[in-house]
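Schema walkthrough. Field components (list of strings):
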Amino acid sequence: MIENIKGVSPYLIEGIQLTLLITIVGVLIGFVIGAFIGIGRLSKNKLIYSFSSIYVETIRGTPILVQIFFIYFGLSDLFGINFDKITASIIAIAINAGAYIAEIVRGGVQSIDKGQWEAGRSLGLTSSQTMRYIIWPQAFKRMIPPLGNQFIISLKDTSLFSAIAVNELLYQGKQFATTTFVYFEPYFMVGVFYLIITIPSMIVLRMVERRLDV
Amino acid sequence: MIHVKDLHKSFGTTEVLKGLTTEIKEKEVVCVIGPSGSGKSTFLRCLNLLEDITSGQVIMDGRDLTDPKTNINDVRTDVGMVFQHFNLFPHKTVLENITLAPIKVKGLSNQEAKDVAIPLLDKVGLSDKADVYPSSLSGGQKQRVAIARALAMNPKVMLFDEPTSALDPELVGEVLEVMKDLAKEGMTMVVVTHEMGFAREVGDRVFFIDEGIFMEEDTPENIFHNPQNPRTQEFLSKIL
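Field assembly_structure (string):
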Protein backbone atom coordinates (compact mmCIF):
# COMPACT_ATOMS: atom_id res chain seq x y z
CA MET A 1 0.00 0.00 0.00
CA ILE A 2 2.60 2.55 1.18
CA GLU A 3 4.83 1.41 -1.62
CA ASN A 4 2.15 1.99 -4.20
CA ILE A 5 1.42 5.42 -2.77
CA LYS A 6 5.11 6.22 -2.99
CA GLY A 7 5.14 4.84 -6.52
CA VAL A 8 2.25 6.90 -7.84
CA SER A 9 3.13 10.18 -6.12
CA PRO A 10 5.79 11.42 -8.57
CA TYR A 11 3.30 10.95 -11.42
CA LEU A 12 0.65 12.85 -9.54
CA ILE A 13 3.02 15.68 -8.61
CA GLU A 14 3.70 16.08 -12.30
CA GLY A 15 -0.01 15.89 -13.07
CA ILE A 16 -1.07 18.45 -10.52
CA GLN A 17 1.34 20.99 -11.90
CA LEU A 18 -0.32 20.75 -15.27
CA THR A 19 -3.77 20.79 -13.66
CA LEU A 20 -2.86 24.02 -11.87
CA LEU A 21 -1.34 25.57 -14.97
CA ILE A 22 -4.45 24.87 -17.05
CA THR A 23 -6.76 26.06 -14.29
CA ILE A 24 -4.95 29.26 -13.39
CA VAL A 25 -4.26 30.42 -16.94
CA GLY A 26 -7.72 29.27 -18.09
CA VAL A 27 -9.61 30.99 -15.29
CA LEU A 28 -7.59 34.20 -15.70
CA ILE A 29 -8.45 34.35 -19.40
CA GLY A 30 -11.99 33.29 -18.46
CA PHE A 31 -12.21 36.26 -16.13
CA VAL A 32 -11.31 38.67 -18.93
CA ILE A 33 -13.91 37.00 -21.18
CA GLY A 34 -16.43 36.98 -18.34
CA ALA A 35 -15.91 40.66 -17.54
CA PHE A 36 -16.65 41.70 -21.12
CA ILE A 37 -19.47 39.24 -21.71
CA GLY A 38 -21.02 39.96 -18.30
CA ILE A 39 -21.07 43.69 -18.94
CA GLY A 40 -22.29 42.92 -22.47
CA ARG A 41 -25.27 41.18 -20.92
CA LEU A 42 -26.17 44.51 -19.34
CA SER A 43 -25.72 46.49 -22.54
CA LYS A 44 -28.59 48.39 -24.08
CA ASN A 45 -27.05 47.70 -27.48
CA LYS A 46 -29.09 44.80 -28.85
CA LEU A 47 -26.23 43.31 -30.87
CA ILE A 48 -23.87 43.24 -27.90
CA TYR A 49 -26.60 41.94 -25.64
CA SER A 50 -27.60 39.16 -28.05
CA PHE A 51 -24.04 38.07 -28.70
CA SER A 52 -23.29 37.93 -24.97
CA SER A 53 -26.48 36.05 -24.19
CA ILE A 54 -25.97 33.49 -26.95
CA TYR A 55 -22.43 32.93 -25.74
CA VAL A 56 -23.46 32.38 -22.13
CA GLU A 57 -26.41 30.14 -22.91
CA THR A 58 -24.52 28.03 -25.47
CA ILE A 59 -21.63 27.36 -23.12
CA ARG A 60 -23.78 26.80 -20.06
CA GLY A 61 -26.08 24.57 -22.04
CA THR A 62 -23.43 22.13 -23.25
CA PRO A 63 -21.12 19.83 -21.27
CA ILE A 64 -17.50 20.88 -21.00
CA LEU A 65 -16.50 17.46 -22.33
CA VAL A 66 -18.32 18.24 -25.57
CA GLN A 67 -16.62 21.62 -25.65
CA ILE A 68 -13.12 20.16 -25.34
CA PHE A 69 -13.83 17.51 -28.01
CA PHE A 70 -15.15 20.23 -30.28
CA ILE A 71 -12.11 22.45 -29.75
CA TYR A 72 -9.54 19.67 -29.96
CA PHE A 73 -11.01 17.37 -32.61
CA GLY A 74 -13.82 19.34 -34.23
CA LEU A 75 -11.93 22.50 -35.15
CA SER A 76 -9.02 20.45 -36.36
CA ASP A 77 -11.25 18.37 -38.60
CA LEU A 78 -13.15 21.19 -40.26
CA PHE A 79 -10.72 24.11 -40.29
CA GLY A 80 -7.42 22.35 -39.79
CA ILE A 81 -6.84 24.31 -36.58
CA ASN A 82 -4.59 22.07 -34.54
CA PHE A 83 -4.13 23.12 -30.95
CA ASP A 84 -1.80 21.11 -28.80
CA LYS A 85 -3.62 19.37 -25.97
CA ILE A 86 -2.64 21.84 -23.27
CA THR A 87 -3.61 24.88 -25.33
CA ALA A 88 -6.91 23.23 -26.20
CA SER A 89 -7.50 22.57 -22.49
CA ILE A 90 -6.71 26.13 -21.49
CA ILE A 91 -9.06 27.43 -24.20
CA ALA A 92 -11.81 25.08 -23.02
CA ILE A 93 -11.48 26.21 -19.40
CA ALA A 94 -11.29 29.86 -20.45
CA ILE A 95 -14.39 29.68 -22.62
CA ASN A 96 -16.31 27.58 -20.14
CA ALA A 97 -15.37 29.54 -17.02
CA GLY A 98 -15.88 32.72 -19.03
CA ALA A 99 -19.56 31.98 -19.43
CA TYR A 100 -20.10 31.30 -15.74
CA ILE A 101 -17.94 34.26 -14.72
CA ALA A 102 -20.02 36.43 -17.05
CA GLU A 103 -23.02 35.59 -14.93
CA ILE A 104 -21.07 36.34 -11.76
CA VAL A 105 -20.02 39.70 -13.22
CA ARG A 106 -23.54 40.52 -14.32
CA GLY A 107 -24.93 39.67 -10.90
CA GLY A 108 -22.21 41.65 -9.15
CA VAL A 109 -22.74 44.75 -11.25
CA GLN A 110 -26.52 44.50 -10.98
CA SER A 111 -26.31 44.22 -7.22
CA ILE A 112 -24.88 47.73 -6.94
CA ASP A 113 -27.54 50.29 -6.09
CA LYS A 114 -28.79 52.32 -9.04
CA GLY A 115 -28.14 55.44 -7.01
CA GLN A 116 -24.41 54.86 -7.42
CA TRP A 117 -24.79 55.12 -11.20
CA GLU A 118 -26.90 58.20 -10.87
CA ALA A 119 -24.47 59.87 -8.50
CA GLY A 120 -21.60 59.19 -10.89
CA ARG A 121 -23.47 60.35 -13.96
CA SER A 122 -24.85 63.43 -12.24
CA LEU A 123 -21.26 64.53 -11.54
CA GLY A 124 -20.50 64.44 -15.26
CA LEU A 125 -18.65 61.11 -15.35
CA THR A 126 -19.21 59.14 -18.54
CA SER A 127 -20.83 55.74 -18.27
CA SER A 128 -17.50 53.96 -18.69
CA GLN A 129 -15.87 56.16 -16.05
CA THR A 130 -18.76 55.48 -13.71
CA MET A 131 -18.34 51.75 -14.33
CA ARG A 132 -14.60 51.85 -13.82
CA TYR A 133 -14.29 54.07 -10.78
CA ILE A 134 -17.58 53.58 -8.96
CA ILE A 135 -19.46 50.44 -9.93
CA TRP A 136 -16.69 47.96 -10.72
CA PRO A 137 -14.66 48.32 -7.50
CA GLN A 138 -17.79 47.74 -5.42
CA ALA A 139 -19.09 44.96 -7.64
CA PHE A 140 -15.74 43.19 -7.74
CA LYS A 141 -15.72 42.80 -3.98
CA ARG A 142 -19.03 41.00 -4.17
CA MET A 143 -17.77 38.80 -7.01
CA ILE A 144 -14.88 37.38 -5.00
CA PRO A 145 -16.72 34.54 -3.24
CA PRO A 146 -18.42 33.21 -6.40
CA LEU A 147 -15.19 33.68 -8.37
CA GLY A 148 -13.40 31.53 -5.81
CA ASN A 149 -16.06 28.88 -6.24
CA GLN A 150 -15.68 29.02 -9.98
CA PHE A 151 -11.93 28.53 -9.61
CA ILE A 152 -12.54 25.33 -7.64
CA ILE A 153 -15.15 24.11 -10.13
CA SER A 154 -12.82 24.76 -13.06
CA LEU A 155 -9.99 23.01 -11.25
CA LYS A 156 -12.11 19.89 -10.96
CA ASP A 157 -13.33 20.23 -14.55
CA THR A 158 -9.76 19.84 -15.81
CA SER A 159 -10.02 16.15 -14.89
CA LEU A 160 -12.26 15.75 -17.94
CA PHE A 161 -9.30 16.54 -20.16
CA SER A 162 -7.98 13.08 -19.37
CA ALA A 163 -10.36 12.15 -22.17
CA ILE A 164 -8.01 13.77 -24.69
CA ALA A 165 -4.98 12.37 -22.86
CA VAL A 166 -3.77 15.59 -21.28
CA ASN A 167 -1.26 14.61 -18.58
CA GLU A 168 -3.20 16.28 -15.83
CA LEU A 169 -3.75 14.81 -12.39
CA LEU A 170 -6.45 12.22 -13.11
CA TYR A 171 -4.79 11.04 -16.33
CA GLN A 172 -1.49 10.56 -14.51
CA GLY A 173 -3.21 8.41 -11.90
CA LYS A 174 -5.00 6.45 -14.57
CA GLN A 175 -1.75 5.84 -16.44
CA PHE A 176 -0.19 4.43 -13.30
CA ALA A 177 -3.21 2.26 -12.64
CA THR A 178 -3.42 0.77 -16.11
CA THR A 179 0.27 -0.03 -16.29
CA THR A 180 0.55 -1.54 -12.78
CA PHE A 181 -2.96 -2.99 -12.40
CA VAL A 182 -3.11 -1.27 -8.99
CA TYR A 183 -6.32 0.72 -8.79
CA PHE A 184 -7.07 1.69 -5.20
CA GLU A 185 -3.99 3.74 -4.32
CA PRO A 186 -3.71 5.83 -7.50
CA TYR A 187 -7.34 6.94 -7.54
CA PHE A 188 -7.39 7.44 -3.79
CA MET A 189 -4.31 9.59 -4.06
CA VAL A 190 -5.71 11.52 -7.03
CA GLY A 191 -8.61 12.49 -4.75
CA VAL A 192 -6.20 13.46 -2.00
CA PHE A 193 -4.22 15.64 -4.41
CA TYR A 194 -7.35 17.50 -5.50
CA LEU A 195 -8.20 18.09 -1.85
CA ILE A 196 -4.70 19.38 -1.18
CA ILE A 197 -5.50 22.20 -3.59
CA THR A 198 -9.21 22.71 -2.99
CA ILE A 199 -9.33 22.74 0.80
CA PRO A 200 -6.62 25.40 1.27
CA SER A 201 -8.24 27.38 -1.57
CA MET A 202 -11.52 27.39 0.31
CA ILE A 203 -9.80 28.43 3.53
CA VAL A 204 -7.98 31.28 1.80
CA LEU A 205 -11.23 32.31 0.17
CA ARG A 206 -13.00 32.37 3.52
CA MET A 207 -10.22 34.55 4.91
CA VAL A 208 -10.37 36.97 2.01
CA GLU A 209 -14.13 37.18 2.37
CA ARG A 210 -13.82 38.04 6.01
CA ARG A 211 -11.12 40.61 5.33
CA LEU A 212 -13.25 42.29 2.68
CA ASP A 213 -16.36 41.96 4.77
CA VAL A 214 -18.53 40.87 1.86
CA MET B 1 -31.18 79.95 -16.46
CA ILE B 2 -33.53 76.99 -16.84
CA HIS B 3 -36.32 77.02 -19.40
CA VAL B 4 -38.80 74.18 -19.37
CA LYS B 5 -41.22 74.00 -22.29
CA ASP B 6 -44.14 71.61 -22.41
CA LEU B 7 -42.19 68.84 -20.70
CA HIS B 8 -43.77 65.41 -20.94
CA LYS B 9 -42.43 62.24 -19.39
CA SER B 10 -43.93 58.78 -19.63
CA PHE B 11 -42.84 55.51 -18.10
CA GLY B 12 -44.24 52.95 -20.51
CA THR B 13 -47.87 53.91 -20.91
CA THR B 14 -48.04 55.90 -17.66
CA GLU B 15 -47.69 59.60 -18.23
CA VAL B 16 -46.04 61.11 -15.18
CA LEU B 17 -45.37 64.65 -16.40
CA LYS B 18 -48.13 66.10 -18.52
CA GLY B 19 -46.74 69.25 -20.01
CA LEU B 20 -44.73 71.39 -17.63
CA THR B 21 -43.68 74.87 -18.66
CA THR B 22 -41.72 77.24 -16.48
CA GLU B 23 -38.65 79.37 -16.21
CA ILE B 24 -36.19 79.47 -13.36
CA LYS B 25 -33.95 82.50 -13.15
CA GLU B 26 -30.35 82.73 -12.06
CA LYS B 27 -29.90 82.84 -8.27
CA GLU B 28 -33.48 81.84 -7.76
CA VAL B 29 -34.39 79.22 -5.15
CA VAL B 30 -37.39 77.22 -6.26
CA CYS B 31 -39.02 74.68 -3.97
CA VAL B 32 -41.14 71.99 -5.55
CA ILE B 33 -43.83 70.55 -3.32
CA GLY B 34 -46.62 68.12 -3.94
CA PRO B 35 -48.05 64.77 -2.87
CA SER B 36 -46.06 61.59 -3.45
CA GLY B 37 -46.37 60.27 -6.96
CA SER B 38 -47.13 63.74 -8.27
CA GLY B 39 -44.03 63.76 -10.48
CA LYS B 40 -41.92 66.23 -8.54
CA SER B 41 -38.82 64.03 -8.40
CA THR B 42 -39.26 63.05 -12.03
CA PHE B 43 -39.41 66.74 -12.95
CA LEU B 44 -36.15 67.34 -11.10
CA ARG B 45 -34.46 64.33 -12.69
CA CYS B 46 -35.41 65.58 -16.16
CA LEU B 47 -33.39 68.73 -15.49
CA ASN B 48 -30.11 66.79 -15.69
CA LEU B 49 -31.43 64.01 -17.89
CA LEU B 50 -31.27 61.27 -15.29
CA GLU B 51 -34.63 60.57 -16.90
CA ASP B 52 -34.95 60.82 -20.67
CA ILE B 53 -37.42 63.40 -21.75
CA THR B 54 -40.39 61.99 -23.66
CA SER B 55 -41.28 65.25 -25.34
CA GLY B 56 -40.88 68.96 -24.82
CA GLN B 57 -37.75 70.91 -24.10
CA VAL B 58 -35.42 71.72 -21.24
CA ILE B 59 -32.89 74.46 -21.86
CA MET B 60 -30.24 74.61 -19.19
CA ASP B 61 -28.05 77.68 -19.26
CA GLY B 62 -28.59 78.04 -23.02
CA ARG B 63 -28.05 74.34 -23.82
CA ASP B 64 -30.96 72.31 -25.11
CA LEU B 65 -30.93 68.99 -23.25
CA THR B 66 -33.18 67.34 -25.81
CA ASP B 67 -30.83 68.18 -28.67
CA PRO B 68 -28.85 64.99 -29.38
CA LYS B 69 -25.82 67.14 -30.20
CA THR B 70 -25.67 68.48 -26.64
CA ASN B 71 -22.92 66.82 -24.63
CA ILE B 72 -24.90 65.78 -21.60
CA ASN B 73 -21.82 65.08 -19.48
CA ASP B 74 -20.75 68.70 -20.01
CA VAL B 75 -24.13 69.95 -18.91
CA ARG B 76 -24.09 67.73 -15.85
CA THR B 77 -20.81 69.20 -14.65
CA ASP B 78 -22.70 72.49 -14.33
CA VAL B 79 -25.67 70.93 -12.57
CA GLY B 80 -25.03 69.50 -9.13
CA MET B 81 -27.42 66.96 -7.72
CA VAL B 82 -28.11 65.87 -4.16
CA PHE B 83 -30.11 62.69 -3.63
CA GLN B 84 -32.51 61.56 -0.96
CA HIS B 85 -30.32 58.57 -0.12
CA PHE B 86 -27.03 60.53 -0.42
CA ASN B 87 -25.49 57.98 -2.81
CA LEU B 88 -21.99 58.52 -1.49
CA PHE B 89 -19.40 56.12 -2.85
CA PRO B 90 -18.92 53.65 0.02
CA HIS B 91 -15.53 52.42 -1.20
CA LYS B 92 -14.01 55.88 -1.16
CA THR B 93 -13.14 58.19 1.70
CA VAL B 94 -15.03 61.42 2.20
CA LEU B 95 -12.21 63.32 0.51
CA GLU B 96 -12.07 60.87 -2.41
CA ASN B 97 -15.82 61.13 -2.82
CA ILE B 98 -15.40 64.84 -3.37
CA THR B 99 -12.25 64.78 -5.50
CA LEU B 100 -13.19 61.93 -7.86
CA ALA B 101 -15.19 63.95 -10.37
CA PRO B 102 -12.88 67.01 -10.40
CA ILE B 103 -9.96 64.68 -11.11
CA LYS B 104 -11.63 62.41 -13.66
CA VAL B 105 -13.93 64.88 -15.39
CA LYS B 106 -12.10 68.19 -15.12
CA GLY B 107 -8.61 66.70 -15.20
CA LEU B 108 -7.44 68.33 -11.99
CA SER B 109 -4.37 66.92 -10.27
CA ASN B 110 -4.84 65.22 -6.91
CA GLN B 111 -3.46 68.26 -5.12
CA GLU B 112 -5.63 70.72 -7.05
CA ALA B 113 -8.71 68.64 -6.35
CA LYS B 114 -7.80 68.48 -2.68
CA ASP B 115 -7.43 72.26 -2.63
CA VAL B 116 -10.98 72.46 -3.94
CA ALA B 117 -12.34 69.83 -1.56
CA ILE B 118 -10.89 70.99 1.76
CA PRO B 119 -12.58 74.42 1.82
CA LEU B 120 -15.86 72.75 0.83
CA LEU B 121 -15.58 70.26 3.67
CA ASP B 122 -14.92 73.20 5.92
CA LYS B 123 -17.98 74.93 4.58
CA VAL B 124 -20.21 71.97 5.41
CA GLY B 125 -18.52 71.63 8.79
CA LEU B 126 -16.80 68.29 8.21
CA SER B 127 -13.13 69.11 7.75
CA ASP B 128 -12.26 66.57 10.43
CA LYS B 129 -13.91 63.77 8.44
CA ALA B 130 -11.83 63.97 5.25
CA ASP B 131 -10.20 60.58 5.65
CA VAL B 132 -13.04 58.49 7.02
CA TYR B 133 -15.36 56.28 4.99
CA PRO B 134 -19.02 57.22 4.55
CA SER B 135 -20.20 54.24 6.60
CA SER B 136 -18.94 55.91 9.77
CA LEU B 137 -20.96 59.09 9.18
CA SER B 138 -24.46 59.96 10.35
CA GLY B 139 -27.14 60.62 7.76
CA GLY B 140 -26.83 64.36 8.18
CA GLN B 141 -23.07 64.20 7.76
CA LYS B 142 -23.45 62.01 4.68
CA GLN B 143 -25.80 64.47 3.09
CA ARG B 144 -23.46 67.36 3.82
CA VAL B 145 -20.64 65.43 2.17
CA ALA B 146 -22.93 64.80 -0.79
CA ILE B 147 -23.55 68.55 -1.05
CA ALA B 148 -19.80 69.24 -0.90
CA ARG B 149 -19.24 66.58 -3.57
CA ALA B 150 -21.72 68.27 -5.90
CA LEU B 151 -20.25 71.72 -5.18
CA ALA B 152 -16.74 70.52 -6.04
CA MET B 153 -17.68 70.65 -9.71
CA ASN B 154 -18.47 74.33 -9.25
CA PRO B 155 -22.01 73.96 -10.61
CA LYS B 156 -24.23 76.81 -11.73
CA VAL B 157 -27.38 75.06 -10.58
CA MET B 158 -27.99 72.69 -7.68
CA LEU B 159 -30.80 70.16 -7.72
CA PHE B 160 -31.97 68.67 -4.42
CA ASP B 161 -34.18 65.60 -4.48
CA GLU B 162 -35.83 65.38 -1.06
CA PRO B 163 -32.47 65.94 0.63
CA THR B 164 -33.79 65.59 4.16
CA SER B 165 -36.46 62.91 3.72
CA ALA B 166 -34.22 60.02 4.71
CA LEU B 167 -32.81 61.77 7.77
CA ASP B 168 -33.63 61.37 11.43
CA PRO B 169 -35.57 64.46 12.48
CA GLU B 170 -32.77 65.83 14.64
CA LEU B 171 -30.37 65.74 11.69
CA VAL B 172 -32.56 67.68 9.26
CA GLY B 173 -31.49 71.07 10.63
CA GLU B 174 -27.79 70.73 9.88
CA VAL B 175 -28.48 69.92 6.24
CA LEU B 176 -31.00 72.73 5.84
CA GLU B 177 -28.45 75.15 7.34
CA VAL B 178 -25.94 74.26 4.64
CA MET B 179 -28.61 74.71 2.00
CA LYS B 180 -29.61 78.08 3.41
CA ASP B 181 -26.00 79.27 3.28
CA LEU B 182 -25.84 78.15 -0.30
CA ALA B 183 -29.01 80.05 -1.15
CA LYS B 184 -27.60 83.17 0.49
CA GLU B 185 -24.50 82.93 -1.64
CA GLY B 186 -26.70 83.18 -4.70
CA MET B 187 -26.73 79.58 -5.90
CA THR B 188 -29.56 78.75 -8.29
CA MET B 189 -31.41 75.94 -6.56
CA VAL B 190 -34.31 73.64 -7.34
CA VAL B 191 -35.38 71.78 -4.22
CA VAL B 192 -37.94 69.00 -4.10
CA THR B 193 -38.88 68.98 -0.47
CA HIS B 194 -41.38 68.25 2.25
CA GLU B 195 -39.81 70.88 4.49
CA MET B 196 -42.43 73.57 4.27
CA GLY B 197 -40.51 75.70 6.77
CA PHE B 198 -37.52 75.73 4.45
CA ALA B 199 -39.69 76.47 1.43
CA ARG B 200 -41.28 79.38 3.23
CA GLU B 201 -38.07 80.82 4.61
CA VAL B 202 -35.61 80.27 1.77
CA GLY B 203 -37.67 79.76 -1.37
CA ASP B 204 -38.15 82.60 -3.81
CA ARG B 205 -40.91 80.67 -5.46
CA VAL B 206 -42.82 77.52 -4.68
CA PHE B 207 -44.18 75.19 -7.34
CA PHE B 208 -47.07 73.00 -6.33
CA ILE B 209 -47.17 69.97 -8.59
CA ASP B 210 -49.91 67.35 -8.70
CA GLU B 211 -50.74 64.68 -11.27
CA GLY B 212 -47.85 65.83 -13.43
CA ILE B 213 -49.00 69.43 -13.75
CA PHE B 214 -47.90 72.64 -12.07
CA MET B 215 -51.14 73.43 -10.31
CA GLU B 216 -49.80 76.62 -8.87
CA GLU B 217 -46.53 78.52 -8.82
CA ASP B 218 -46.13 81.58 -6.70
CA THR B 219 -44.17 83.17 -3.87
CA PRO B 220 -44.09 81.15 -0.66
CA GLU B 221 -46.16 83.89 0.94
CA ASN B 222 -49.02 83.44 -1.48
CA ILE B 223 -48.82 79.66 -1.70
CA PHE B 224 -48.87 79.12 2.03
CA HIS B 225 -51.20 81.92 3.10
CA ASN B 226 -53.43 82.35 0.14
CA PRO B 227 -53.41 79.32 -2.14
CA GLN B 228 -55.66 79.75 -5.16
CA ASN B 229 -55.92 76.22 -6.46
CA PRO B 230 -58.23 73.86 -4.55
CA ARG B 231 -55.69 71.04 -4.86
CA THR B 232 -53.05 73.23 -3.27
CA GLN B 233 -55.44 74.11 -0.48
CA GLU B 234 -56.26 70.46 0.09
CA PHE B 235 -52.59 69.41 0.10
CA LEU B 236 -51.53 72.18 2.46
CA SER B 237 -54.41 71.56 4.83
CA LYS B 238 -53.18 67.98 5.20
CA ILE B 239 -49.59 68.80 5.98
CA LEU B 240 -49.62 72.13 7.80
